[in-house]
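Structure request: Chaperone protein DnaJ, Rhodococcus koreensis.
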Amino acid sequence: MSQREWIEKDFYKELGVSSNASADEIKKAYRKLARDLHPDANPGDTKAEERFKSVSEAHAVLSDPAKRKEYDEARRLFASGGFGRGGGGFNPGAGGFGQGGFDINDLFGGGGAAAGDGGLGDIFGGLFNRGAGAGGGATRTTNRPRRGSDVETETTLEFREATLGVTVPLRLTSPSPCTTCHGSGAKPGTSPRVCPRCNGTGIVSRNQGAFGFSEPCDDCRGTGSIIDSPCEVCHGNGVTNRTRTITVRVPAGVSDGQKIRLAGQGEAGLRGAPSGDLFVTVRVRPDKVFGRNGDDLTLVVPVSYGELVLGTTVSVPTLEGRVGVKIPAGTADGRILRVRGRGVPKRAGGAGDLLVTVKVAVPQKLDDPATEALKTYLEAEKASGFDPRAGWAGA
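Returned structure:
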């Protein structure tokens, strides 16, 4: 929609509501009109179809708080200036309003006003160029080079590699800067020249009556530069698909599913523009011995019943060798023993802990001497008054 149409159309009138109607009133009015005017309910009725389009257009603006605010502000500014009414009169051709020398271009940012000063250039920048840049702002005076897209890939590591950190090579096939023209897009020995039509901004302006419009320059296709002799390899884009191998340093302690960002290693930008980023998703294979709980490592060590009763010291593995863990006499099955500083390395320094769970291993078969010795022990245990089920289940 043109800027003139934004001012001349009365979206409130289209929906049959007042200018201070609530969002709920606007929604109800639109639903009723849309139901009555829908093409399915009026087959072959071109007038109803046009009204349906107008109603939908009005609802699209007034149902969006940001667009509605900008629309109201634009109408207010034009109404307060008395455009098209008596008094001093408005002469678009002379660029003046009455005797004050008012220039319509000032309203759209053409009269030297700074960006963001609240003029109509800011309002229409939001209405007509929403999403053109970060935060929905518009690029009005300079053409920004087109940044390359981000690239995603995956790598799979062994558990200990991910925990301790590792350097891995990654082989990628993606758009990269052309090695022939070094990303400029111009044939070696030549250079791009500034577009004479837009003076390198990539944007041209034109007037339609009292209104000014900005649009991408057709001569340079919005790039701001013209290549007379394109590179024969990349055909002037400055980018070619090629396979490359990069080395990625995976930090210690990376977890399964975590992403690593490598700035500038993604898809190359056109004609020397910045490259995108590379995001590497790390997949970690489970380990047969270790588990992980945050920065702590976990493992289960099998022990005999006698070792828990009498106490002992067992040798357990860590990421860097083995350590001895003391099991106190009378330790219960399933107890967790903590070995400090033997877990996953932390980014801020130090490491988590190693959590060792003791688990009784029950022999599947005993020889006669062992069986007789166990029977003797059970009789002695009973004689001592020990009952493993004392107080259990109401016993």
